[in-house]
Design goal:
heterodimer, A: mainly beta, six-stranded mixed beta sheet, five-stranded antiparallel beta sheet, globular, B: mainly beta, seven-stranded mixed beta sheet, four-stranded antiparallel beta sheet
Chain lengths: 111, 113
């Protein structure tokens, strides 16, 4: 599969912003996604961005895409304790209709 | 149903046994994926169905793993002669089409003793 890299851990204080980063290798990605996984649960889609966009904002979430550097980030404003979870980025390749996931970033929000 | 349903949610078996894991996708979703997630890892692709046929089975680790989707809806992942290294959460996801996002089930946790 393709290499999708994420840092493993992030810890922030409640009310601060969180930024989770992701790098990918395949420049033919069509969509890039952020999924959230809470303990014992499946993956839940948070947001996604089409590969020809630079930014997408959705309430507290801001996705930034730097296609030249193959870098994707997710910013969570006013982070809450309920945001504590593992966040996965994923890229979709139109050829083969494949989705490749990163290793996940575990976000801990300190009250 | 409203979401992707996977059964069983937990399965404990002994080394060498045969296991079947079932996935019932969202109605009307033509694409169905199986992933395996080990502790502390991201989902690892196993196999992808478009309709009844396996469009890509390159992620199946060896010939002990097999999956079917005979009527283009429910899928079954079959593992023969289970090994301790097969212990993981097996995730199923469905998608409405070629460009749609994945909708995941809650997974089937397999433990091989």
């Amino acid at each position: 599969g393709e290499d999708v890299e994420q840092s493993l851990f992030l810890s922030v204080r409640e009310g601060d912003s969180s930024v989770i980063n992701c790098t990918y290798t395949d420049s033919s990605s069509t969509y890039l996604y952020w999924y959230k996984q809470e303990p014992g649960a499946g993956l839940q889609l948070l947001t996604y961005i089409f590969s020809n966009m630079d930014m997408k904002q959705d309430q507290r979430l801001t996705v930034l895409l730097n296609k030249k550097d193959k870098h994707l980030s997710l910013r969570i404003a006013d982070t809450q304790t309920g945001d504590s979870a593992i966040y996965f980025c994923a890229e979709h390749l139109y050829t083969g209709n494949q989705f490749y996931f990163g290793t996940g970033t575990s976000l801990t929000v300190i009250p | 149903g409203a979401g992707v349903s996977q059964t069983p949610s937990n399965k404990v078996t002994e080394k060498g046994k045969y296991v079947e894991l079932r996935c019932d996708p969202i109605s009307g979703h033509t694409a169905l994926y199986w992933y395996r997630q080990s502790l502390g890892q991201g989902p690892e692709f196993l196999i992808y169905f478009q309709g009844t046929g396996a469009a890509d089975d390159s992620g199946l680790p060896n010939d002990r793993f097999f999956a079917v989707r005979p009527e283009g809806s429910v899928s079954t992942l079959k593992i023969q002669r289970t090994e301790r290294g097969d212990s993981a959460v097996y995730l199923c996801a469905s998608s409405p089409g070629v460009t749609g996002e994945l909708f995941f089930g809650e997974g089937s946790r397999l433990t091989v003793l």
